[in-house]
Amino acid sequence: MQNLVVRQARTDDVVAIRDVLEPMMVTNLLLRKDLVVLYEAVQEFLVAELDGKIVGCGALHVLWRDLGEVRSIATTPEVRGMGVGHTMLEGLIERAHVLGLSRLFCLTFETKFFGRHGFEAVGEHVVDHDVYKEILHSPDAGTAEFLDLPWVKPNTLGNTRMLLEMAKA
Fold first, then answer.
1. pLDDT tens over the chain, length 169 residues
2. pTM (whole model) above 0.85
3. What radius of gyration, in Å, describes the C-alpha atoms of the chain?
């Protein structure tokens, strides 16, 4: 897409990010996020802008020294299937390299999409026991999903845990 720009999200993009995510949150394809949570996480988001309109978004959340989670990749219906999601994911992978991460995790229904980008299905144990104990201290709901804690089970049912092993930058 010639006029597509992927850039760091700003606070004035948050309502548009919510609008892109809303249809997927309503159908439980994505974890519901209130506006305040999106504002708190705006620095994690990239947005895709086409002719001045936000048509996609995606976030990278650092979980641990070497591990990040790709979150909230979504596009508007009118650009779905046109490569916007791919461009967003490539941007998030590049950010992960810049941050020094070597592994990216996602919890998804979209296994074919992530599989085309090198993600592979994995079991529940992505981190060792000591790291698991440390990550348990996070108040983040998405991190609770990553850990597969009992209180978030309804959010994770049917999702596949996938991991991308990246070469060190």
1. 678 999 999 999 999 999 999 999 898 888 888 999 999 999 999 999 999 999 999 999 998 889 999 999 999 999 999 999 999 999 999 999 999 999 999 988 899 999 999 999 987 666 666 766 666 656 666 665 655 545 444 455 567 888 999 976 5
2. no
3. 15
